[in-house]
């Protein structure tokens, strides 16, 4: 729960011990905007704020599932200019993400990594309970492949954001969110699983 703004102060705290960190970011949006309605800090700016403060190791940032409408003719330019790897949703359609996560593990190496998972990275057919749904997203199986693909990384924190149960009368979004967060906790180093 909570909007993606919460990741910014979390990464500030994580950076005190582990800065800069790599980032595995699953989302429909890059969240690297500059301002909205005159405000610098909102749910579409956290990762630009993190870049500006030096909290991220930009060569170890991957954004997966990015899609959606934009007013910018090149909406991923800022991210690529910083050195982020952007994996648009259409590169994920109809395939397993296990090979991608093998590449991501190599990119992250053994340095600290943070996982930030926005529920709108998933298609709204599976997770309609979010404030900014975008069609043609990831499937729950792909979400599990991403999270389980992080096993063995030096994960120093994780979050799951943007779950808004009031927008989903079925309760499926909350169920999916809870399960994804459980999966994230299972890949945190030194957590014992059966």
TrEMBL record:
Q: Which UniProt keywords apply?
A: Hydrolase, Metal-binding
In Swiss-Prot or TrEMBL terms, this protein is called: Agmatinase, mitochondrial
Q: What is the lineage of its organism?
A: Eukaryota, Metazoa, Chordata, Craniata, Vertebrata
Gene Ontology terms for molecular function: agmatinase activity; metal ion binding
Record-stated family: Belongs to the arginase family. Agmatinase subfamily.
Q: Does the keyword ATP-binding apply?
A: no
Q: Which PANTHER family match?
A: ARGINASE/AGMATINASE, GUANIDINO ACID HYDROLASE, MITOCHONDRIAL
GO biological processes? putrescine biosynthetic process from arginine, via agmatine
């Amino acid at each position: 729960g909570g909007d993606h703004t919460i990741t910014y102060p979390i990464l500030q705290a994580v950076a005190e011990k582990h800065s800069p960190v790599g980032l595995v970011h699953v989302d429909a949006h890059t969240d690297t905007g500059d301002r909205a309605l005159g405000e610098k800090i909102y749910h579409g700016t956290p990762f630009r704020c993190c870049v500006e403060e030096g909290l991220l190791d930009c060569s170890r940032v991957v954004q997966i599932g990015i899609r959606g409408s934009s007013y910018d003719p090149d909406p991923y330019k800022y991210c690529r200019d910083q050195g982020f790897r952007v994996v648009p949703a259409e590169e994920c359609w109809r395939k397993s993400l296990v090979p991608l996560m093998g590449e991501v593990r190599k990119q992250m190496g053994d340095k600290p990594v943070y996982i930030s998972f926005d529920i709108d990275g998933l298609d709204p057919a599976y997770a309609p309970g979010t404030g900014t749904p975008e069609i043609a997203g990831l499937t729950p199986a792909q979400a599990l492949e991403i999270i389980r693909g992080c096993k063995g990384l030096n994960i120093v924190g994780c979050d799951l954001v943007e779950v808004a149960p009031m927008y989903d009368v079925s309760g499926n979004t909350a169920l999916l969110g809870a399960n994804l967060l459980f999966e994230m906790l299972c890949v945190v180093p030194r957590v014992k699983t059966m």
